[in-house]
């Protein structure tokens, strides 16, 4: 009968939905930066597991959640995951995607709104772990700090080390076979795909109209 608890329990499934979304996006887009983002999330999870097994701080109510995969709670993996995802996405929105059209106000507006939504979801998921007695406030706080630091470090690593290698990786025979592509030189991939698709649709429509005449 605890509606708030049920809602927060569903919100705590956010990491699962994000992973499914990433896998789906990679299957259909096959873009190297997206693959790198998912790799960063996986590495972040590995670091979380390592820290937990080094510190070995128990959860606040171990007997209340017998189905959890690990008895250690410091730092919170959900909090670390969500703050990695949110901070990395924030950096991507403001540093990777640049203005490419004249709708400056709308371009900034949707970025601000999306950033607020990302932070809100990260806060709610973090809070849910305390509310549902999976973690203490300190475990959630340190998870958020660790995830944020990892996100900044991985974004810098991707931008400075991996991105210059993406064109070479995209040219590998195996990358061409699996249609893996590099869009790192395109400032705003959403705007680019929109304009290219619209131009191609108009071109095909003109050709179709010529054939029918």
Task: Give the uncertain stretches in residue-range form.
Answer: none
Major beta sheet, specifics? none
Please tell me the total number of domains.
2
Please give the count of helices: 9
Helix content: over 70%
Give average pLDDT, whole number: 84
What is the beta-strand fraction? Answer: under 5%
Distance between the termini: 67 Å
Q: Would you report the number of β strands? A: 0
Say what oligomer this is.
Answer: single chain
- Rg of Cα set: 21 Å
Structural class: mainly alpha
Task: Indicate the overall shape.
Answer: elongated
- N to C succession of SSEs: HHHHHHHHH
Fill in the keyword field for this structure.
213 residues; mainly alpha; 2 domains; 9 helices; 74% helix; dolichyldiphosphatase activity; PAP2/HPO_sf; PAP2/HPO
Provide structural commentary:
The protein has helices at 3-11, 14-29, 32-55, 77-96, 104-131, 137-162, 166-170, 173-177, 189-212. It is an all-alpha fold and 213 residues long. The chain folds into two domains: 3-182, no CATH class; 187-212. The longest helix has 28 residues, at 104-131. The mean pLDDT is 84.
